[in-house]
Amino acid sequence: MHAFYLHIGDYMKDAGHLSMLECGAYISMLRTYYSGETALSKDIKVIHRLVGAKRPQEKDAVKRILEEFFTLESDGYHQKRCDQEIKNYHDKAEKARQSAHARWAANAMRTQSERYANHKPLTINHKKGVGSDTSYTSPENVKTVEKELKQKTQEIAADLASNMRPAEQPSRSAIEERNRQIAILVVNGKIEEAHALKAQPIE
Hints:
This protein has 203 residues and is mainly alpha-helical. It contains eight helices and two strands, in the order ααααββαααα.
């Protein structure tokens, strides 16, 4: 933690009776506790060094503060208010991290959605004036696109039939299958492949 909150009312209620030396020792110990975000060492000599207690009076003040405001546990001297404030600090930091992550994810999804929205889908533009800059998924143009596809399929079928001699004409089912394949290619915008398939004889 880079800072800690000192509530004046609570401090005066709990520690207003301390001498100037004891008050200085207590503040120094709180500062050490918060900066390390952990309990004070069980070794009181380490605490003396961390808070700068060198003279006997200063060391005595540290001892009295430990006895009055701290509790010795297995990992060191704990202070209940400090532990709660450190927990609140970490909870707040975690919430801020999650919030930032959620905002980042939302922005990424919005950017992706805008990219899809601005994407220009394939259109039937092999014939001038037909389907140019028109999305197949656009509701107002679906009927027009279907009509153009049906007309184009019929034209291709007529061309195939006219270019064949009677003895060579395939069965109706074969013609319908070829027309279906060509229509699929046209729908997918594969015009060159559709023309290539059209030129192939139907077996």
